[in-house]
Structures are given as structure tokens and as C-alpha cells.
Please model this.
Amino acid sequence: MNKIQYKNTHLNSTRLIYGCMRIAGDNTPADKAKGKLALRAALEAGYNHFDHADIYGGGHCESLFGELLTELKQETPDIREQLIITSKAGIRFEPQRYDFSTDYLTTSVENSLKRLNIDYLDMFLLHRPDYLFNAEDVAQTFQQLKASGKVKYFGVSNFSPSQVSLLQSALAEPLLVNQIEINIHNIDSLTNGSLDQCQQLGITPIAWCPLGGVAYPAWGNTFSTADEQRIEIELARQAELYNCLPWQLILAWLLKHPANICPIIGSTTPERIIAAKQALAIEYNHADWYRLLEARNGYAQP
Model:
């Protein structure tokens, strides 16, 4: 599995990250067993980075991961040190809102650690921007979490370039990642400065919903039938050319970008988790990248 080293750290993350949002399912015994099989498949396939959030499955996803980690320690005592475990917080309910207050973020980290059955998070991300956040206050919270040993490094999720710049201006150490939606449907990061900023500052972009618009409908889908047909035709042509499946080709399309995008694989099907690795071996052509963009847009560049 190809890896990338996060800037100024010892963290070497696999280019494909396993997303744990669905591993608990309905939290029934059957769904939990399926989730553990998916996690084991990811580990056996070489994934070393696992993405969580305090709200995934109402906390059950982190708890399930913690259960499996306890089992794995019996087989491989140093398994924890081989993994990068990330979690996120910042979304609250009743009423639904964003919250970067010190008490909430600190409590969220502590609860995630308990559920995951670990002593520290390798990375802690702010899940979605709190429009009322004070950068200096967040910086102080990060400093406290790091000093306590509960979090090693920090990043953000769904932040605009200006929000990244604002928070970074108050921090003594660099933000490592910005987890944003990037797929054939949502290409905002190509034009809004997010990927440019990632390259400039050495921030790694992590793509959530990377297969949106292809393997499943994208969030807020705006594709017309004609759009979908153009994309399907071009994907089929390129998939045959590169001897892969269309969804694997989309991953290669994302991996081609020089910002070193790391897609999140969220499937709970072991075969698909393993098959995603084929995208890493595709020597994707510059011209084909633009052919797919043209099929997506319906016009050439420029």
C-alpha cells in the first residue's frame, strides 16, 4: 500500500484511508460482526489509517473499533503503534449546531478515547467550521490536548481556505490535513483554492465521498441524465483502457492530483475494500484526466 508522510511528523499514512462511519450499522450483532470483518479486511489489505468521528453511529462506531482493537492486541501486542487513528468533533445536536468550545472539544476527545480504548489520538480534526469560533481559543484548546498527551497532531475538515488560514495563524504547529468532499460531482476544491493551499502549506487533502456521482449518488446531486451518460461513457472507455473498474478509475483520477489527495474508502464489503488498492497501481494519463473532466463538464478546457 502506497504511503504518504505528513509534513514535519513521523506519521506515514496509507494513501487510501479506511472510513469507519458505517462499521456499526444498526448496532445489531449481525451488523457489528460485518463491521469487524470489514475492519480486518482493511488491516489485512494494508490500510493503516482509520477515520472516525464522535457522531458516527452515535459513538457505536468508535466503540466497535475499540472492541476489535482489544481483540487484535491479543494477536499483535503492538498493533496500536502500527495504526493512525483519527477522530473528529464539532457537530452537536438538540439543537443542531457547530461548537468549538474548549469544554465540548475536550470532553469529545476524552469520550472518543474511552470508546476506542486507546490513550491518544494520532490526529484530531474539527469536523465542520463553527462560524463563531475564536482562533486563539481553539489554539489554546489544541495546546492543552497536546500537552495532556491525548492528541498528537491536529487538522480540520470541511474548512475553506480562509478558515484554514485564520486557524493556522493562531497555531504554533502546522495543521496536517483538511478533510473535504472531492469527487467527480463536487470539484469545488479545484477552483476555490483548497487544493492550491494544501500544496502551498504542505497540508494533505483527505477526500470524503470520493466515489460520489459514480458508485452512489453525490450529496446534493445536480447531474442531469445527459451529464451522467457522458461520464458513464467516458469512464467505461477509460476503464477498459486501464483494465480496471470505473470506480477504481475515479480513485486514480483523484490520486493523480499533485496535492496528494488521500481518498477515504468507506465500504463494509471486504472485496471492495481490497479492490480499491488497484487504483494505486494505475499509471493514469494527464490527457485522460482532462477527458474525464470534459465529460463531467460537457465542454473542453478551455
Summary: The two ends are 36 Å apart (CA to CA). The chain has one domain: 3-222+250-267. The first strand starts at residue 3 and ends at 5. Residues 3-222+250-267 form a domain with the TIM Barrel fold (CATH 3.20.20.100).
